[in-house]
């Protein structure tokens, strides 16, 4: 017999929130839960495994669409490892770009700050070199 878990039990086992479970159900990442005679959502071990996978994938920064694709490939009986590697490579590229953008912003801020040395808080008010720009 398959063990049926309440949403509270399933969330504790998968280490996700109830809100996350509802979002994943609404987005089609998790099949709709069965219901008890009292109307409570019920989950099984397969649901907990799926929730755990989704949590891990989100922790790695995968987008919900990426996770949906990986789950669909897996459901089709095909090992999704190549797809997962491709998705992780894409995330690394996104992070590398974000780091480069942040480093460029940092350089700009430091250069602008150095130009601010020319600014003096005196009257009469003059235009600050930072506002005037290069």
Question: Features of this protein?
Answer:
134 residues, mainly alpha, Multidrug-efflux Transporter Regulator, Chain: A, Domain 2, 2 domains, elongated, DNA-bd_dom_put_sf, MerR-type_HTH_dom, DNA-binding, transcription, MerR_fam
How would you briefly describe this protein structure?
The chain has 134 residues and is mostly helical. The chain is 62% helix and 5% strand.
List the helices and strands and how they pair.
Elements: E1 5-6, H1 7-14, H2 18-26, E2 34-35, E3 41-43, H3 45-59, H4 64-75, H5 81-115, H6 129-132
Antiparallel strand pairs: 1-3, 2-3
What does this structure look like?
- This protein is mainly alpha-helical.
- The chain folds into two domains: 1-60, Multidrug-efflux Transporter Regulator, Chain: A, Domain 2 (Orthogonal Bundle); 79-134.
- The protein contains six helices and three strands.
- The chain has helices at 7-14, 18-26, 45-59, 64-75, 81-115, 129-132, and strands spanning 5-6, 34-35, 41-43.
- A three-stranded antiparallel β-sheet has the order 1-3-2.
- A hairpin with a 5-residue loop joins strand 2 and strand 3 (41-43).
- Helix 1 (7-14) packs across helix 3 (45-59).
- It is elongated.
- The N and C termini lie far apart (73 Å).
- The relative contact order is 0.09.
- The model has no long low-confidence stretch (mean pLDDT 89).
- InterPro entries: DNA-bd_dom_put_sf, MerR-type_HTH_dom, MerR_fam.
- Residues 4-73 form the HTH merR-type domain.
- This is MerR family DNA-binding protein.
